[in-house]
Amino acid sequence: MKSERNVEIGVGTFKRDNKVLWRFCMVSGWIVMTASTAAYAILKPGTTAADLTFLPNPVVGWLDENFNFRTFVMTLGVCLVPAFLLASGESDNVRRRLLSVALIVLVSLEFIQLWIPTRRFGWADVGYTFAGVAAAEVLVLLARRVGSATPPASGKGCSV
Question: What's the predicted TM-score (pTM) here?
Fold first, then answer.
């Protein structure tokens, strides 16, 4: 038995089942946690990942060695889970709006580094941020395409 509720999600009230409500709550929670961590990592005075105490030392070392690429990894960390939770065709508009907002916020944080004396702004970071958001969308579309492929019926071979 499906329980339905009216849920207000930004632009209006929608009649959705509990599964959609659960996904909305998961996406919201993930975005708040990871965007807050990203904001701290981007705006803190130091550039080392060692300030993120929850990361194991090998991860910190890898992130510090791959200085600009870590922006791509961080962007994927923020965007990939919500993108996959909103991977269904009916959620395309919501997913793309969410990814657009994440892109705007993360790029804005990169530009704020212009006013932090111990940090420096770099166009490479902006490029990696765009690439991370685009990679999240492409991975969702690729997974959806691979998942929708139907195997051949039994007894009938695969024709090339």
Answer: 0.79
